[in-house]
Amino acid sequence: MRPDSLVMAAPEGSLRKRKVGGAEHSPASQPSLARDPADSPARLHTGTFWLTRIVLLRALAFIYFVAFLVAFNQNKALIGDRGLLPCKLYLKNVQEYFQGSTGWAAWTYAPTIMWLLDWSDMNFNLDLIALLGLGISSFVLVTGCANMILMTALWALYMSLVNVGQICHSLGWESQLLETGFLGIFLSPLWTLSRLPKNTPTSQIVLWGFRWLIFRIMLGAGLIKVRGDKCWLDLTCMDFHYETQPVPNPIAYYLHRSPWWFHRFETLSNHFVELLVPFFLFLGRRMRILHGVLQILFQVILIISGNLSFLNWLTIVPSLACFDDAALGFLFPSGPQGLKKQVLEIQREDTQRVQPKPRDRGCLVRQVVNISLGILVAWLSVPVVINLLSSRQIMNTSFNPLRIVNTYGAFGSVTKERTEVILQGTVSPNASAPDAVWEDYEFKCKPGDPWRQPCLISPYHYRLDWLMWFAAFQTYEQNEWILHLAGKLLAGDSEALALLAVNPFEGRTPPRWIRGEHYRYKFSLPGGQHATQGKWWIRKRIGPYFPPLRLEDLKEYFKTREWPLPEPPSRHTR
């Protein structure tokens, strides 16, 4: 498809087709240039996407930077040599599944450059990948320059982490970043590092790849809601969402107490944006721009009202493909050496050119690559579309090991009450003694201490906090890693404690016992009795989540799972 464009009169005898932006256009379909009295370009016009590419690449680089920063800060404790779910053990299990081979079958099952690295120090490997990703993404973010090599490196590095991250990297935005990043590879020239590579116009096929991505993200999210939980149909889901979402922020505390009619309006608006607005993409330039504006506004509202990691920031990225240079020009200064001036010059040259630009081999190769990309995305979209149309729709699923085209969705069901697992320790020799004092461990962001204000961290992400949110819906037998965490806390493991906000035994001997307690949490009423006492939450104990455990109780458990045994505290006498 070609973008809509303004037209200007063509010189007589010049109605020959020529190449502009990688697609055939006649002069009548070229972007027109309004001119001031001095016959110089006055403003950007429709139909080109030079500035769009810069904005897309920088936005994508920002998301990569955040993702690699999270990986650098947390992966060693989560999937490192002595992490909760060691990635070396995971790769060994994959090897064993394929009869000890690291051949094609193992690579396609878990595509990661970890297969090529020395496994004797996985912490070094994880840091190396994260630091390389931080370096490359910083360069693209600051300069706005990228090529296919750099963008491929970012994609391969992050895929290498996701595919060994197990449940720590199992959330939907991981695949969404990989799909977005894969499309980002084809935005750029092969070698050139220039913000405006004049010989490589932004491909319409790649732009439609981004538009197809945002269409599937939003429509998938809308369909899974109306199919998954009746509260989306009776318009009551927002009565619960702010309180029960994974990691509420302070604004959610107040939004939860909005009038009932406001919650109904929110739910209807959600259905409008997710089920109807996506089709605006196919209704011409103006409706595409309206689609982009509405989707970005919707994501900004979600960012303000919750801590959903970089998910909403990431969802803004493909929405940017709805805007051409004329729509995004206001983001760029108008100085004589500015990017806007350079794009105006490119538009002027393309408009005045009568003869088509000569095709070189690189241009032909580029066309073949872009067409191949379109065919690949179309082919991989078949099971995704079938899933969208199915009454048994599944969300956040990949149908290929490279996660190039995936299914998406969010909050297909909304929990109606919030439960939390609170980890507690005691130095008492007898865990059952009435005088045993149990002290709470506090996580970085998830609810714990009722007096602690909810955090505001988006786009950053605390992976362990999210795992604890999911664990509260299930049992510890379904989340074996939580007993691994308990063992590490009993040993005073510094890596595990770095994932927490408060260690009640800081500077003291680690606890003799650890237990998990199950609590029900509700927001306090603003201005009410509990709120005036400084409480943000009201909690009530449900019962035990797992029983009191000592380090020696877990040794056999660790051994059968091949987890590294935590070293017992040297100052602790049992």
UniProtKB/TrEMBL annotation:
Q: Does the keyword Endoplasmic reticulum apply?
A: yes
Per UniProt, what is the membrane topology?
Answer: Multi-pass membrane protein
Give the GO biological process terms.
protein maturation
Positions of the UniProt region annotated as Disordered: 1-39
Q: Give an example GO cellular component term for this record.
A: endoplasmic reticulum membrane
Q: Which residues form the Lipase maturation factor 1/2 N-terminal domain?
A: 170-328
| All copies of domain Lipase maturation factor 1/2 C-terminal, residue ranges | 404-547
Aminoacyl-tRNA synthetase found in the keyword field? no
Where the protein is mainly located, per its record?
endoplasmic reticulum
Name the InterPro entries on file.
LMF, LMF1/2_C, LMF1/2_N
Instruction: Explain the purpose of this protein.
Output: Involved in the maturation of specific proteins in the endoplasmic reticulum.
Q: Which PANTHER family match?
A: LIPASE MATURATION FACTOR (PTHR14463), LIPASE MATURATION FACTOR 1 (PTHR14463:SF10)
Protein's UniProt name: Lipase maturation factor
